Amino acid sequence: MAVERTLSIIKPDAVAKSVIGKILARFEQAGLNVVATKMLHLSEELAGGFYAEHKERPFYNDLVAFMTSGPVVVSVLEGENAVALNRELMGATNPKEAAEGTIRADFAETIDENAVHGSDSAASAEREVAYFFEDSEICPRTR
Ligand code: RTP
Ligand code: MG
Q: Where is the Nucleoside diphosphate kinase-like domain positioned along the sequence (predicted)?
């Protein structure tokens, strides 16, 4: 399996709980390198565009309201099998169904406010990384 990149977002609920460091540590402990990261407070336009695929879903308006309710931390994670590995570390979308020891099981309570986002495929990852980062903002390891 080749080295991949994936997009991670630490959502406003997790930022508010001050667990940014704990969540990033889980990625690093699992062998995912943070090769870009920034904190930003998403505008409605930026959050709406990011979740455009969910525009017709009943939860879309609530999702955009939540994602703009406070700052987020957006990161590019790099490593072997990064897309699937990140999804595994995150756990199920609904924290009540998330496996023990996953980020959502440990740091989230509800499906609406579930601590983290992770790209769901290599194609989504490519699109989502480009949505938030210029190539020049990504800093692969040199040592
Ligand atoms: P994400 O995109 O945030 O990584 O989460 P995901 O792939 O596990 O879930 P997805 O189906 O893409 O949904 C995106 C986000 O919308 C909220 N959601 N609410 N109330 C609901 O039924 C519902 N379903 C999804 C969640 O915040 C989910 O992470
Ligand atoms: Mg998704």
A: 3-140
